[in-house]
Design brief:
Blueprint (H helix, E strand, L loop, with lengths): L14 H14 L1 H21 L7 H24 L7 H6 L1 H6 L2 H5 L8 H10 L4 H12 L3 H28 L9 H5 L5 H38 L1 H10 L3
Length: 244
């Protein structure tokens, strides 16, 4: 990897600053990231919502399970943006074997349950390691930074929860008189099926909006960890000062 080619200015940062670096990167290339991400996410969300006829809880659960797999498209776009490259849907399509199908089962199972997946996902996807070297590398990147990954996951989880309830509140407030449901109708086990579909739709909208920034915050943590482990900031400055 040519560190001098990175478009991101590296320096040692606190984990809060590192997460903010990732968020700012996502803001800077939002059009590219969202175009790539939504081209994949929207069909998945439609399929998930279609499972409402099977069980009212299934669409939300299916979208929750799909998030680590969808994150791979976001991370692909962000990793290219870090080197100043834009990403199109065609780029994602051409790299589909690497982005979508590599480590497919683990993305839907083991890594779904990881509370620090935002920090370790770049290792699995970008470093090209397998087996024992990959396991050791993940442990190295996680060492002393697991708490930062959990905090980022928790913070964005709370943001998602707040947005879902805000969207539901808007639907309730603007519902015609006589049609406003009570909480036991929305969240109860019986009745109110249409409102549970609205909840699933609100969750889909929230994930579509928030997930790129969550992945970006974790990517910022990962870049900062590379600075700590391998002095990328020093190498970057050295190579820029003495170009080949």
């Amino acid at each position: 990897m040519r560190v001098d080619a990175l478009a991101v200015r590296l320096r040692p940062r606190s984990y809060v600053e590192a997460a903010d670096l990732g968020v700012r990167l996502c803001q800077h290339v939002a059009r590219s990231v969202y175009a790539s991400y939504l081209a994949v996410a929207l069909p998945v969300f439609v399929l998930c919502l279609a499972t409402f006829e099977v069980a009212s809880w299934l669409p939300t659960f299916a979208m929750w399970m799909a998030k680590p797999w969808l994150d791979r498209t976001i991370l692909f776009a962000l990793s290219r943006a870090a080197f100043g490259q834009s990403t199109t849907v065609a780029d994602v399509w051409n790299a589909q074997r690497e982005v979508w199908w590599s480590q497919l089962i683990r993305s839907w199972t083991q890594r779904r349950l990881s509370p620090w997946r935002c920090l370790t996902a770049p290792v699995y996807q970008l470093e090209g390691l397998r087996g024992e070297p990959q396991r050791r590398r993940v442990q190295q990147v996680r060492s002393g930074k697991t708490g930062a990954g959990i905090l980022v996951t928790s913070a964005f989880g709370l943001v998602e929860l707040a947005l879902v309830f805000s969207l539901l509140a808007l639907c309730v407030w603007f519902a015609p008189e006589g049609m406003r449901p009570s909480l036991d109708v929305i969240f109860g086990a019986e009745g109110g099926g249409e409102w549970r579909f609205v909840m699933a739709l609100a969750y889909a909208m929230t994930v579509a909006l928030v997930e790129p920034f969550y992945v970006a915050a974790g990517f910022g943590l990962y870049l900062n960890r590379r600075v700590e482990l391998e002095a990328w900031d020093i190498e970057q400055e050295f190579r820029r000062a003495q170009p080949e």
